[in-house]
Specification:
Elements (H helix, E strand, L loop, with lengths): L15 H12 L4 H18 L9 H12 L15 H4 L19 H13 L4 H21 L6 H11 L31
Helix pairs in contact: 1-2, 2-3, 5-6, 6-7
Length: 194
């Protein structure tokens, strides 16, 4: 009995060992016309195995590329398409440069800190008050999401004053925070009922 670990490595597991064995058999056929008929029959089998992809452009070209790849490009037949080596078409793209910004407190994030910097530059008025309302409520929500025990409206007011270098302050007696919305737990555990 032979285990799969003792057999030849599968080049493309989606086609299975049967297709790979058929391709190896086709390589050994001496008569070119017979080898061509065998390759076309194998392509038919591979096409039926990948029928969900049939609507994609260049589907049959891709199947012929796969048969060439599985044979290590040793199958000598008349290919109906120019064969593309699989490694050539899949070049890695150049990595994107992500700007790394320094964040003072991770629970707020860069965008909220940037909003606080813009809030400090705004002149007093209705627009600044509306922005302060949005920013303060988002800060409270962020604290709640990050650590429910650390959520404190006084901390939000102190952080606003610290980020804006004292230019904007939040009067907790006259300011009404929106209620925080509890998000579902991310750890997969369900909340215990009491």
């Amino acid at each position: 009995m032979k285990y799969n670990t003792q057999r030849e490595h599968l080049k493309m597991p989606e086609y299975g060992r049967g297709v790979q064995d058929m391709i190896q058999y086709a390589i050994g056929i001496e008569d070119r016309a017979e080898r061509q008929r065998c390759a076309e029959a194998i392509v038919g089998i591979m096409t039926s195995m990948q029928s969900q992809l049939r609507d994609q452009p260049d589907f049959t070209h891709r199947i012929w590329d796969h048969i060439a790849y599985i044979s290590d490009y040793r199958l000598d037949v008349d290919y109906p398409y120019p064969i593309t080596k699989l490694g050539e078409e899949a070049e890695k793209p150049t990595p994107l440069h992500y700007p790394m910004k320094k964040i003072g407190q991770r629970q707020y994030g860069y965008l909220l800190e940037e909003s606080l910097r813009q809030l400090a530059e705004m002149p007093e008025g209705e627009e600044r008050d509306a922005m302060l309302q949005l920013v303060a409520n988002q800060m409270k929500q962020s604290l709640f999401t990050w650590n429910r025990d650390a959520m404190d409206e006084a901390k939000v007011a102190a952080d606003i004053e610290r980020y804006t270098k004292g230019r904007v302050s939040l009067d907790l007696d006259n300011f009404h925070f929106a209620p925080v919305q509890s998000l579902p737990r991310q750890d997969g555990k369900k909340k215990k009922k009491k």
